[in-house]
Amino acid sequence: MKILHFIPKFSSISQSFIYDLLLRLDKIDHVDNTVLTYKRSQEKERPYKDVKIIKSNTLMERLMYKILRKIGCKRIVAPNIRALRRELNKKNDYDIFHAHFGNSAYKAFIADDSVEFAIKTVVSIHGTDITKNFASKKKYREVLISAANRGCIFLANSQFLASKAIELGLPRENIKIVYNTVNEKFLNAERELPYADGPLRIISIGRLIDVKGHEYLIRAVPVLKRNIKNIQLSIVGDGINLSKLKNLVHDLGIDENVHFLGSVSHDKLPEILSNHHIYVQPSIIYEKTGQEESFGIVILEALAVGLPVIVTNTGGMPEVVNFTSSKWAKIIPQKDEMSIAKAVNEIIDNNKSFKLKDPDRINILEKYTAEKQTETLLDIYSDVIGNYADET
Predict the structure, then answer these.
(1) In angstroms, rounded to a whole number, what is the distance separating the alpha carbons of residues 300 and 383?
(2) Which segments of the chain belong to CATH 3.40.50.2000?
(3) Where is the Glycosyltransferase subfamily 4-like N-terminal domain (predicted)?
(4) 163 and 297 in contact (C-beta within 8 Å)?
(5) CA-CA-CA-CA dihedral for 144, 148, 152, 153, to nearest 10
(6) Superfamily for the 2-180+369-391 domain
(7) Cα 155 from Cα 67, distance rounded (Å)
(8) Which of 104, 171, 270, 271 could form a disulfide with 99 if both were Cys (CB 3.0 to 4.6 A apart)?
(9) What's the confidence (pLDDT) of residue 353?
């Protein structure tokens, strides 16, 4: 079984889950993986044996494209699409074309709109490629729906994302659920660190953008300080809201309590998480775009290390923690710092009962094992190969 994985930038710092998947698939004897990409990044941190770089267009081609667009030629094909088309037109003997993210699939289907190509293609969708782009970009939506109607299969990482895709026009029968999983290095870092009399250490990880809801977590700190003398909040990630959030921290007078750690290598996250007591994901529904968290893999990573988690009732996050609040997972309303503070205090009150063998924690983690993800994906690959053989 030969799989050609199309990942425009391989491997972005935030896409460790794709790299982990490739490494797991490589361990299976009958699976042969190749990555097709425009740009190779983190080559030292994430080495990979078989990567094809799509040859870039010449300066003259790029210049000609800009000139033609400027004078109103709307049907001219972008240089990066032409380069991808040349690669796809080569004699490729792969069984499956796996596009990671809807944006990748859009480029691929512009490059090759044949029925034969669609039938052997699967597309992993992860969030904004559906909740934002699919909803707002007509051409993007038309291309992906057309591909689905020609046989392409879409892989959603949650029931929430699948329902969004169906709502926006993808056929239900073309969508399969393949849950994300957690890297074993987080399970290897598990520990019991109940809160005692020292500083209460809370952590949140994510890009500093509106949909992540960091503002409300920061606003919860002064509320918590009414009862907790020593509280420390660590925020991991970079983004356009950094200055705004730092100003908010200063205005609230909590500079000594909130620490912005910036972008951190995924390999360092297990250790960082293990030095905290509670994980909070305060994400919101961003009204301007309708964007929501589709899954939130870092929630699983925090649980794997041994942290109880607090998530908002948005997107696929309640699904990650089995839809119900429990000792290990609190589900709260969005945009509500008082609810965040209340959930933190409830966790502190139960802190002595957080044991790694607790059924609440185990039941959540067992749903998302790497073995289940790999088995599900291989079954889908086999079905796609069978359908291709029947249709051609």
Answers:
(1) 29
(2) 2-180+369-391, 184-366
(3) 17-184
(4) no
(5) 100
(6) Glycogen Phosphorylase B; (3.40.50.2000)
(7) 38
(8) 104
(9) 63
Rounded Cα gap, residues 277 and 199, in angstroms: 10
pLDDT of amino acid 336? 98
Question: The tokens of 49 are what?
Answer: 């044996």
Identify whether the C-beta of residue 310 lies closer than 8 Å to the C-beta of residue 343.
yes
Q: Reply yes or no on whether the pLDDT at 384 is more than 70.
A: yes
Helix axis angle for 214-224 and 337-349, nearest 10°, is 60
Q: In the predicted model, what is the mean pLDDT of residues 328-341?
A: 96
Coil, helix or strand at residue 25? helix
Q: Quick one: which of 296, 283, 307 has its CA closest to 201?
A: 307
CB 48 within 8 A of CB 22: yes
Is the pLDDT at 300 greater than 90? The verdict is yes
Give mean pLDDT, residues 336-364: 86
Q: Which among 312, 325, 327 is positioned nearest to 194, based on CA atoms? A: 327
Backbone angles phi, psi at 225, to 5 degrees: -65, -15
Instruction: Retrieve residue 182's tokens.
Output: 């957690």
Q: How many CB atoms lie within 10 A of CB 282?
A: 26
Range 184-366 has CATH code 3.30.70.360? no
